Amino acid sequence: MTGIASLSQLRMSFLRYALFTVPLVLLLGTISGRLAGSGYGNAWFDALQKPDFMPPGWLFGVAWTILYILLGFVLAMLLSARGARLRGVTIGLFVLQLAMNYCWSPLFFAMHRIDAALVLILAMIALTLILVVLVWRIRRMGAVLMLPYLGWLCFAAALTQSIGALNPDAARLAPAGASTDIAL
Length: 184
Description:
Layout: H1 7-36, H2 43-47, H3 57-79, H4 87-110, H5 114-138, H6 140-166
Helix pairs in contact: 1-3, 1-4, 3-6, 4-5, 5-6
C-alpha cells in the first residue's frame, strides 16, 4: 500500500498509542513515587523545614496525575508521527527525560539527596526545553502540552533549592522517632 494515510487513520493511530502510553506513563510515575515514599507521610520529609510557598500535599498528586497524562499524550503524538524528521531522536530524548523524572523521587525522598535531586531537576528542565523545540517541529500541540510540565519542573526546582537551603544537613536528618540503637 503506497497511499497516504487519511486524517481519520492518523487520529486512530494516535488514539491506539494513547490507550497504551497514557496509562503507562501514569502508572510508572505512580510506582516511582510510591516506592520512594514520596510526599507527606515520609518521616524524613515531614521533619524537613519547608519554604512558605510549599503547596499542600494533595496538590502534588493532582498536578502529577495531570502532567503524566499530558506526557502520555505527547508520547502518543510522537509515536504516531511516522515519517517526521527527528522523530526517533525526539522519542529517545523524551524517554530519557521521563526516566530522569522517575528517578527524581527515589533520589530525593528515599536517598535524601537534595543536592543531587536539584541537579537532576535542572537537567530535566534543560532537556525539556530542548524537547519543546523538537516536539514543536513534529506536533505543535504536543509542544504546547509540555509547557505545563516545564512550568511545574521550574516550580519544583525552586522548592527543591529552598528545601536544600533551609535544611543543609538534610541527608543526615533522622526521621522523628527513629533510633540508631540496635534491637536485640
